[in-house]
Amino acid sequence: MRRTVLSATALACTAVLASTTPALADSPSPVPAATVAPSESSAPADATEPSPVPAEDDAPDRSTAPGEVAVVPSGAPDTGVASAESGADGALIGGSAAAVLTAGGAAVLLVRRRRATTA
Amino acid sequence: MTSLSRRAFAAAATAALLGGCGGGHGNGRSTAGRPGSTTPSARPSAEPVRVLARSVPVGLEIPAIGVDTPVIRLGLAPDRTVQVPPVTAHDRAGWYRHSPTPGQIGPSVILGHVTVGRHGDGVFRHLARLRPGDGIVARLENGTAAVFAVDSVRTVAKADFPTDAVYGDVGRPELRLITCGGPRTGDEYRDNVIVFARA
Fold it and tell me: For residue range A27-61, what is the model confidence (pLDDT) as tens digits?
C-alpha cells in the first residue's frame, strides 16, 4: 500500500515538473535580442513608415496653420501592437493546467485500480 | 481504500495548485504597473514661460520611467490619422511634425508604442506610471532642450479620443505624450494613455 501511495505521489510530482517547466522557461524577457541592431536608415517590412520629410519641409505647414497645430489628425493613434506571445502564454498556461489535472486524475485511477487488484 | 483515495486526491490537488502558480508567474509581466484611472491635474503654472526657437526634437528623456530615446518625425497617414513609429525592436518615439516643436507655443505631440508585437515592450511601455511633476526633456536639433513637467495623465477610450484637449490651442508651450493602454481585444488596445505636460 505504501508503495502505491508513493508511486501516486511520484506521478503527481512528475506532472507538476513537466507542466511548470515550459511555463517558467517561457517567462519572457521583454528585452529584445541584443543581436538586433537598431538602424536609423532601414525600416523593417512590417513597419509603419515614419515620415522621411526633412525639417525644412515643416515650415510651410506652420505658415498655413490656422491654429497652433497645423493639421489636426482624425481619430485616435494606434500606438500599441499587442504581443502575439501573450496569446501563446495563455494557451501554454491553460495546457499546463489541463496536463496537471489529467495527470492527477490518472494517478487517482491508477491507485484505485491497484487497490482493487490487491484487495 | 478511502484513506488511499483521499491521499491520491490530495496529491493531485497539490499538483494542480502548483501548476497554477507556475503559470501565473510566467504571465506576470502583463499586469505590471498599469494604473487605469485618470490622474487629475495638480500643478499650478504661475511662473513666466520661456518660448524656444523652432527646432525639431531629436531625443526624449523621461527619467521617472527610464526613457531615453531618439525621436523621429511623423506625419499623417492616408486616412488622415496620425502616423505612428515603426513596429520594431528598440522602437523610438515620434514627433507629429504638424504640431509645434517642443518649447514653442502650442501642444507639441510625441507618440510612442506601448508594445511592439513580438518585439515586446515599446518605448512608452510605462507611460501610465508618470505622475504630476515628473520631468520630461526634449532634446532639440539646435542643441537646446525643452523641459516640461507632467501636469496630468489620462487614460481615455480610443472611441472618445479628446482631440480638442490634445491638439487644441493652449497659448503656451506644452507637450503631449501619447501611447496605447487599457485592456486588449485581439491585437489592439482599447484606450489611449495621454500625458499632458507644461513647460
Answer: 444 444 434 344 444 444 444 455 444 444 444 44
Q: Give the domain range for residue A101.
A: 1-26+88-119
For residue range B15-49, what is the model confidence (pLDDT) as tens digits?
Answer: 444 443 333 333 323 333 333 334 334 444 556 78
Is residue A98 one of the residues assigned to a domain?
Answer: yes
This prediction's pTM: 0.58
Interface residue B46 vs chain A (CB under 8 A):
no
Query: Mind listing the domains of chain B with CATH numbers?
Result: 54-198 (2.40.260.10)
Residue of A11, A17, A57, A69 to mutate, interface with B, max B Cβ within 10 Å? A69
Count the domains in chain A.
Answer: 1
Provide the 8-state DSSP code for B142. T
State ipTM: 0.72
Q: Do A81 and B87 touch (CB under 8 A)?
A: yes
Asked if residue A68 belongs to a domain, the reply is no
